[in-house]
Design a protein that fits this description.
Layout: H1 11-22, H2 42-56, H3 59-62, H4 72-76, E1 81-89, E2 95-96, E3 99-100, H5 101-114, E4 118-130, H6 135-152, E5 155-164, E6 172-182, E7 198-201, H7 207-215, H8 233-242, E8 248-251, H9 256-268, E9 271-275, H10 283-292, E10 305-309, H11 314-322, E11 331-337, E12 344-347, E13 353-355
Helix pairs in contact: 2-6, 5-6, 8-11
Length: 368
Amino acid sequence: MNIPPTIHPDRDSLFNKIEKVRHRHPKVKDKTITLAHGSGGKAMRDLIEDIFVGSFNNPLLSQLEDQARVNLAELSAMGDRLAFTTDSYVIDPIFFPGGNIGELAVNGTVNDLAVSGATPLYLSCGMIIEEGLPVETLREIVQSMKQAADFAGVKIVTGDTKVVDRGSADKLFINTTGVGVIHAGIDISAANLQPRDAIIINGYLGDHGAAITIAREELALESSIKSDCQPLNGLVQAILAVCPEIHAMRDATRGGLATVLNEFALSSGVGIHLYEQVLPVREEVQAICELLGLDPLYLANEGKLVTVVPNHQAEKVLAAMQSHPAGKDAVIIGEVIDSPSGLVIMETIFGTDRIVDMLVGDQLPRIC
């Protein structure tokens, strides 16, 4: 039985208007984040399209699928292994001298990939937002993430957004996952250290930890110290260009230089000998540490890497690092020794030896 369609003279006009509304560029009109922005409905769609897609816009993300779809042939042409890492950022405060939580999330994950020798390519971004966060604050952070990603040469291609009740989080937490490709022949590992290897760091220690301490305003201190938050993949490529046989490399974030070197010593079953007199520490950072009873060897960094290279390659690597903006203050700080196995020993400015153990406890919580 054929039933004739109901005639609506204005139907086509109405549908055309609806279609235009549905395909307009959405704009978040709320001043603060509400629970509706995490509900999965129109408010969430507007938030995603306006703030995230509008800022991160790239062909992989703009499809708005539940996953990013990457061409495997293109990845295979770049190397023979995939590097995959994830990290979460809960720093307090979310804005600090030298950066914010968004820049930190991008640079931190880029660096975790880079120190494996990988070329970072793609990031995901998961956000847990507290109800009440100003929309313009979120927009500023997302735009800074876009700028950081562009500078590092990576794309943010997929993500997730959750909103929690006021008081259930602290403004904003971010998770970033990164994917990169390791070129054939690169073998960087904490287990590769050999006696007589040289240990090099790319600049001043403890800037990030000191900057966050000041930013929390728990002390009436004034300082020009800024976080060293920066991407290191360009520096790593400069190092690998002159010395593909790098033995080990790691960024010295939570736990600082001391923790990284202890992990190296334990993984390789060797000792490490440091020289205190050459360790690069700014006078302001040293002063803050003395005032608060901290040790710059354990302060977090967000733009510093430690690399261990064969002794005969050390000067060449050092020169390559110093020629790059992220390594202009690079210095050789020590060497690998046979024994004592698993220990880091520092020769102090007084000529005595001191054991530098792994960080016990937490000097400064929520540092990244």
